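Bumping my old thread because nobody answered last time. Still need a sequence for this structure:
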């Protein structure tokens, strides 16, 4: 148990720190803190010019949805980067239990995604003059954390695919685009075609964004309990599916000697 806990926490933090070993830490500022603000401003001003929705609608939707960038890319690099550096084999031949090994890498990603989302929500609200009730701040923080958890589950599936495709960044960008369109971040679900709004129910952020908007409108956490539970369920399903896919690809890679083949 002690070994598993050490692998989960120490191994996860070490792996996350390794993502930045070849970059100056200052790159974090434009990619994780500045970029989401510009995304919020872009869609908020499009909404203003088209007289569609309020600034609050776009601030909440885009702030939560932007957590997909750190969640998708970091999880993909935690596996794809190890494979590229030819260190993944050394990790997988170890007797380390796989559950803490893989899920431990997701913990820093969840926290970082929640931080990025919360920062974008606060900064976007201040810039555009969006007022969030004080009573909604704690529930909103919880929803942001759950949204990040949900997308990290999808990121684990994305990471598994890094064992099969040469360059995962293209796939991560494509998933980001789908989440931007399908989850109701900028277009209300009832304005989307029926098949799109139905598909959105199984995607991260859809339920979290809806819950966050209701909280900002004065609802209590109990009022959005169903939405929060649905978001947790979506994240858990993706996480378990991602873990299963990782294990299956690991076995196949051992069998066919393709673990570090590009």
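Sorry it took so long. Here it is:
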């Amino acid at each position: 148990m002690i070994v598993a806990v050490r692998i989960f926490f120490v191994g996860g933090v070490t792996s996350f720190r390794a993502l930045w070993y070849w970059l100056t830490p200052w790159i974090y500022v434009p990619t994780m803190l500045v970029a989401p603000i510009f995304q919020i401003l872009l869609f908020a001003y499009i909404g203003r010019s088209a007289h569609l929705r309020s600034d609050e609608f776009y601030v909440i939707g885009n702030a939560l949805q932007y957590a997909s960038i750190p969640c998708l890319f970091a999880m993909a690099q935690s596996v794809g980067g190890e494979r590229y550096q030819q260190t993944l084999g050394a990790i997988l031949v170890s007797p380390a239990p796989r559950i803490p090994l893989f899920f431990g890498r997701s913990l820093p990603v969840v926290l970082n995604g929640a931080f990025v989302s919360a920062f974008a929500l606060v900064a976007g609200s201040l810039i555009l003059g969006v007022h969030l009730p004080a009573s909604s701040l704690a529930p909103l923080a919880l929803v942001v954390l759950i949204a990040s958890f949900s997308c990290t589950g999808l990121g684990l599936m994305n990471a598994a695919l890094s064992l099969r495709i040469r360059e995962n960044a293209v796939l991560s960008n494509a998933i980001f685009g789908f989440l931007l369109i399908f989850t109701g971040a900028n277009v209300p679900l009832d304005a989307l075609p029926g098949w799109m709004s139905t598909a959105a129910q199984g995607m991260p952020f859809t339920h979290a964004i809806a819950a966050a908007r209701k909280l900002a409108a004065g609802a209590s956490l109990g009022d959005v309990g169903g939405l929060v539970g649905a978001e947790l369920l979506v994240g858990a399903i993706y996480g378990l599916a991602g873990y299963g896919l990782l294990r299956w690809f690991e076995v196949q890679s051992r069998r066919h000697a393709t673990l570090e083949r590009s």
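Residues 225-256 form the longest helix (32 residues). Let me know if any region looks off to you.
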